[in-house]
């Protein structure tokens, strides 16, 4: 246990962004309330992304009413696997992943069978709003399973690795690869025990890794050296993230993307309140980057120009 | 970005207003700043006695009138007598008038008063008294008096210094022959008064009572008041002293007699007194009540609403605690203000009983909830079922603890059931998704915050302040608003981001 504390001035010197400052100075100021639905409602995000030519996981169907739950087996008849998620879920809650469909029987990634009654209850809970922000009634999205790119084989345990980028006013400023572990139960959320690997904005190469807010060298389950990772399609990922700014009109945005074997990078979801652990994964504070973007003032850069600018100025080697 | 100036002005205003209102209440209405503070009070009994002659009798008795003492309660007991308290010119002449058609034999009339010192011993005059008529000296004394007066007059500059010099002259070791002559046929008080009046200085005889604990059969002592520049100064020419003791109560300042009896003989009055301590809060309430000054106080409400407000006004303290723990410390709680409501329940149950009761109910609830979870219910009916089950659990626990004689168990009914039901539901989901460890962690965290909130809310001085000094709520509001603007690091972030601080 680390019970010792550091001085606030030490964090300030390193440009570490704290929760209160994030909430007031970035989320409160840059993310207009009226656009939250574009981000908090995954169905809306999906529709917007498709309208903006951003690739997303295939939509199999939407369950809006209790009686529609029984139509799920018919929906997934053709699929090898699928994912059921609450449209307004947060923190990765309420996501049911089925990786194997055999003769109408469903299996989770760990091989456990999901019976029809369990499936029914899960979707029913989703519709009742158990997982949604504020407990409001929700809809369940049935999505196609992501065939994840083998490039991360050995780096992730059971789950899909995803790439989180913080996009500030359209500039990708910090990146992180999130790898699930046995501790995180195949989920890619850091607070549940996933490993976060800071990724160089300039190159897509791994920099530094953390689990449970503590620096780590090797993946706890596979013992592979985490900083050896290099994320492919890096430019494409940066472009997609940068485009998400125009699409959502959120100034301080977290984009979550995955690499599909067949379809390439897919936008999984957007986050209006991205966490702060990305700073630990990158072993540096995010404030200098945010201040740099602010210092640009009003500019009319296109997506391409912004990505180029970010790669040049926000790379690990450059001074922000 | 808009300016933050109006915000800070608002916060400053709230803060100043809150502090001012509280200080005003403490200083002006003497509401004690600390609970349980005691003040000294005096219970004085005056017993008026006279022999009735069988004729109609009327007794006029002067009542205390002294800015140094506040009258809390006064009453007069006198069977068979009609009583009225007159307040003729409101200044210095309050009198009790007892009357009876026929008084025969020994008559006893009682007047009781409870007073507290106010600390202001100055006697101010609201209007300037008119200059007295010059006293006409008897022919034998005139020359001596005029000369003695002139001697002192020459050595003085003002009314006050004249009175001081005169007082000194009357009590000097070696008195002048003139004064010796005058004192041989006048009491010092009368002589003092007459010599002042002969110079046109307003002065009057007053009677005071020395307050000493457990004294009986005391008499009033005579003094002379001299007017100078808006203020009455007290002199005791019998021993040459000036000013007043803290334990001197001015009983009669009318300048007339203390006791007048018509239709009776051998009248006398004597006093007995007792010192007492009483709660400063109750005292200030009595005083405010007498003055009709309960301007903005919750004590105007009926008792039931008062006790309701005593609970409600604690919520800002609990909320402040939660805001502090979340924004400054960075603790997470399950359900934002759930800990405050739990803490409110703890106030009724006391801490230990409350903690045990809470854990018992939630544990039982979780067990039953795990069965409900197998039934595939809709969320809304599941929560409703949990609420009913929680009521059942509370009922069973209350009954059991009653049967085995544990009176503490009965207070378990104070827990808010809807909150408990939601807590159970959340914990149950948490259990399924993240395992029992997280349940213990989050539940323990919430209980920890609830305990801290309880400790803050149950402190007697906090309860005293939030109810008696309503201004304090404006200060709390200002602090909460300020914390809403706090962009610094949370305490726990200093630990979380420690790896980033570098070497």
TrEMBL record, chain A:
UniProt keyword terms in alphabetical order: ATP-binding, Ligase, Manganese, Nucleotide-binding
One Pfam family here: ATPgrasp_ST
Cited PROSITE patterns: ATP_GRASP (PS50975)
Gene Ontology terms, MF aspect: ATP binding; metal ion binding; ribosomal S6-glutamic acid ligase activity
Domain of life: Bacteria
InterPro entries per UniProt: ATP-grasp, RimK-rel_E_lig, RimK-rel_E_lig_ATP-grasp
Entry's Gene Ontology BP terms: SOS response
GO terms under cellular component: cytoplasm
Protein's name according to its UniProt entry: Alpha-L-glutamate ligase-like protein
Organism: Shewanella canadensis
UniProtKB/TrEMBL annotation, chain B:
Species this protein is from: Shewanella canadensis
Name of the protein in its database record: Gonadoliberin III
Keyword Membrane (UniProt): yes
Ranges for domain Inactive transglutaminase fused to 7 transmembrane helices: 24-185
Keywords, in A-Z order: Membrane, Transmembrane, Transmembrane helix
Ranges of residues in domain 7 transmembrane helices usually fused to an inactive transglutaminase: 257-500
Gene3D superfamilies: 3.10.620.30
TM annotation in the entry: 6-27, 308-329, 341-368, 380-404, 410-427, 439-459, 465-489
InterPro entries per record: 7TM_transglut (IPR025840), Papain-like_cys_pep_sf (IPR038765), Transglut_i_TM (IPR025838)
SUPFAM superfamilies: Cysteine proteinases (SSF54001)
């Amino acid at each position: 246990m680390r019970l010792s504390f550091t001085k606030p001035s030490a964090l300030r010197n390193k440009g570490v962004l704290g929760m209160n400052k994030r909430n007031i100075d970035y989320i409160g100021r840059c993310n207009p309330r009226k656009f939250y639905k574009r981000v908090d409602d995954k169905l809306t995000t999906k529709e917007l992304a498709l309208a903006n030519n951003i690739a997303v996981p295939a939509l199999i169907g939407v369950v809006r009413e209790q009686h529609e739950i029984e139509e799920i087996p018919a929906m997934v008849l053709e699929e090898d696997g699928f994912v059921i998620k609450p449209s307004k879920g947060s923190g990765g809650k309420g996501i049911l992943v089925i990786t194997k469909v055999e003769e109408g029987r469903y299996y989770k990634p760990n091989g456990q069978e999901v019976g029809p009654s369990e499936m029914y209850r899960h979707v029913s809970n989703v519709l009742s709003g158990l997982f949604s922000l504020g407990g409001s009634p929700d809809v369940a999205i049935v999505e196609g399973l992501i065939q994840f790119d083998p490039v991360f084989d050995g780096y992730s345990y059971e789950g899909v690795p995803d790439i989180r980028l913080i996009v500030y006013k359209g500039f990708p400023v910090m990146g992180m690869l999130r790898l699930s572990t046995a501790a995180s139960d195949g989920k890619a959320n850091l607070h549940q025990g996933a490993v976060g690997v800071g990724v160089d904005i300039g190159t897509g190469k791994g920099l530094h890794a953390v689990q449970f807010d503590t620096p780590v060298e090797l993946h706890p389950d596979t013992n592979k050296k985490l900083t050896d990772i290099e994320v492919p399609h890096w430019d494409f990922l940066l472009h997609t993230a940068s485009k998400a700014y125009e699409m959502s009109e959120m100034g301080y945005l977290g984009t979550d993307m995955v690499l599909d074997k067949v379809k390439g990078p897919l936008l999984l979801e957007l986050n209006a309140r991205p966490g702060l652990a990305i700073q630990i994964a990158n072993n540096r504070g995010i404030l200098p980057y945010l201040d740099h973007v602010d210092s640009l003032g009003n500019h009319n850069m296109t997506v391409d120009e912004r990505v180029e600018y970010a790669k040049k100025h926000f790379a690990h080697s450059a001074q922000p | 970005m808009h300016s933050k100036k109006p915000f800070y002005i608002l916060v400053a205003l709230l803060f100043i207003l809150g502090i001012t209102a509280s200080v005003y209440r403490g200083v002006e209405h003497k509401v004690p700043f600390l609970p349980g503070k005691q003040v000294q009070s005096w219970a004085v009994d005056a017993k008026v006695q006279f022999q009735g002659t069988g004729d109609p009798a009327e007794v006029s008795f002067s009542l205390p009138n002294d800015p140094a003492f506040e009258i809390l309660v006064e009453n007069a007991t006198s069977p068979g007598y009609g009583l009225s308290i007159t307040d003729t010119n409101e200044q210095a002449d309050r009198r009790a008038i007892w009357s009876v058609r026929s008084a025969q034999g020994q008559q006893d009339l009682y007047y009781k008063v409870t007073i507290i010192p106010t600390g202001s011993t100055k006697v101010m005059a609201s209007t300037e008294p008119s200059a007295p008529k010059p006293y006409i000296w008897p022919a034998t004394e005139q020359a001596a008096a005029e000369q003695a007066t002139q001697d002192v007059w020459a050595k003085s500059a003002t009314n006050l210094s004249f009175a001081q010099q005169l007082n000194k002259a009357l009590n000097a070791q070696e008195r002048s022959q003139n004064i010796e002559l005058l004192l041989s046929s006048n009491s010092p008080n009368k002589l003092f008064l007459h010599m002042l009046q002969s110079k046109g200085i307003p002065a009057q005889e007053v009677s005071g009572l020395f307050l000493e604990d457990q004294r009986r059969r005391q008499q009033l002592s005579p003094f002379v008041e001299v007017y100078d520049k808006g203020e009455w100064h007290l002199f005791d020419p019998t021993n040459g002293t000036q000013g007043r003791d803290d334990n001197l109560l001015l009983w009669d300042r009318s300048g007339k007699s203390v006791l007048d009896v018509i239709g009776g003989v051998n009248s006398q009055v004597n006093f007995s007194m007792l010192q007492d301590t009483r709660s400063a809060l109750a005292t200030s309430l009595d005083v405010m009540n007498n003055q009709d000054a309960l301007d903005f106080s919750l004590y105007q409400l009926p008792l039931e609403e008062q006790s309701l407000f005593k609970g409600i006004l604690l919520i800002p303290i609990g909320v402040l605690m939660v805001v502090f723990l979340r924004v400054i410390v960075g603790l997470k709680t399950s359900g934002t203000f759930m800990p405050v409501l739990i803490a409110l329940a703890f106030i009724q149950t006391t801490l230990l009983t409350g903690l045990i009761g809470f854990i018992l109910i939630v544990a039982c609830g979780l067990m039953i909830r795990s069965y409900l979870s197998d039934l595939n219910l809709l969320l809304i009916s599941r929560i409703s079922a949990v609420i009913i089950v929680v009521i059942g659990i509370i009922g069973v626990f209350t009954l059991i603890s009653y049967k085995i004689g544990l009176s503490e168990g009965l207070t378990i009914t104070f827990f808010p059931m809807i909150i408990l039901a939601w807590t159970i539901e959340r914990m149950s989901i948490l259990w399924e998704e993240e395992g029992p460890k997280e349940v213990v962690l989050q539940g323990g965290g919430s209980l920890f915050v609830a305990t801290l909130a309880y400790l803050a809310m149950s402190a007697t001085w906090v309860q005293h302040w939030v109810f008696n000094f309503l201004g304090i709520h404006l200060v709390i509001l200002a602090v909460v608003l300020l914390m809403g603007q706090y962009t610094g690091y949370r305490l726990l972030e200093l630990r979380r981001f420690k790896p980033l601080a570098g070497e």
